[in-house]
Amino acid sequence: MKNLLGIAFAGVIAAGVVYANQSAPNTVVVPVGKAPENDGKQMFLSFCAPCHGVDGRGNGPMAAALKQQPANLTLLSKHNGGQFPANHVASVLQFGTRNPSHGTAQMPVWGPMFSNMDSANMPQANATALRISNLSAYLRSLQEK
Fold it and tell me: Which of 20, 99, 102, 136 is the most exposed place for a label (fewest CB within 10 A)?
């Protein structure tokens, strides 16, 4: 009887652990390091590639942890009549998006993070705008022809 109680107790503990792990939301943590504001490629590799992949096709190492596949960023122009949506990209980087594919705002809103990065060369607002502009320009270079 003592062994049976021990097994039952262990089963209850195991079930509780499994339940707790299922109810915990998946959290993707992207380490934010410094990247030069004038290097769009380095910013992409540091901030975007973990989810969108090095090639921008939505196949980054963190993609499997997300509720939905990250966007294929190489198709932005194709999905916008052959024109790169620079203003939309800048807006998403600065303010985020209400796109339901991002679920519960899994895509970080980079604008505030960029504004918290030190820039010894210029006022912070200008450095943030430059980061967004250069990251957007790099995304333009990834577009399928």
Answer: 20
